[in-house]
Fold this sequence. Notes:
Layout: H1 2-19, H2 22-45, E1 49-57, E2 73-76, H3 79-98, H4 108-124, E3 128-132, E4 136-142, E5 152-157, E6 161-171, E7 176-185, E8 190-193, H5 201-212
Antiparallel strand pairs: 1-6, 2-3, 3-4, 4-5, 6-7, 7-8
Helix pairs in contact: 2-3, 3-4
Amino acid sequence: MVVLGTKIYTSIFMDTMEQISWPFVIIVLILGVVAAIVWIWIWRQSLPIGLREIESASCSHVGKSAAFKDNKIAVSTRKSVVISCRFFYTVISLVYIALLLEPFWFISLVGIPLFGFLAVISWRSDWIEANANAEGIEIKIAFGTFSAKLGRKKFVPWSEITSCEVVTTHNVYGKFIRRSPILKDTKGRIVFDGSRSKASQEDLDRLINFIRGT
């Protein structure tokens, strides 16, 4: 009886698996991976932050010294973020293309244009969030992470930036997490918030040193 029951359940399971479309399985797996990544991100954001050190720096002398007058600083998105976005958008686009061969092909009419567009601009992007020189700092405020051509740019002279804070955060165990510049204009509006940026720590440090003139 046990052997017979096992065979019956095995037969039912195999029949059910054969009826499931492989693109559907791939989509479920991808959604599972995305959900896991989102959960990890939310969990990391909810971790308690320990000591925060805030240092004020003046922007009035930025680029005035001969050593920094001709310097140009580009703040770029981390390579890990770039690779992850390119991989994700490309794979999702290929999955929707594969769905064209399935009965529910009409879903692809929405998925292909959307994720195909994101895939294209993620591969064509320079992924530069900000450019700084002796005159001021240029911020990409729309689609800036993806495309210089599609993204609107906002240039702010250093004379209009009245507040620059360098915030260094540590975890509850005192281990260094991130050091970020936060620039504000004369009206108190945030021009560039390094704590929310996806830039590498190396690029943020280069920008901080440029502002300090060191």
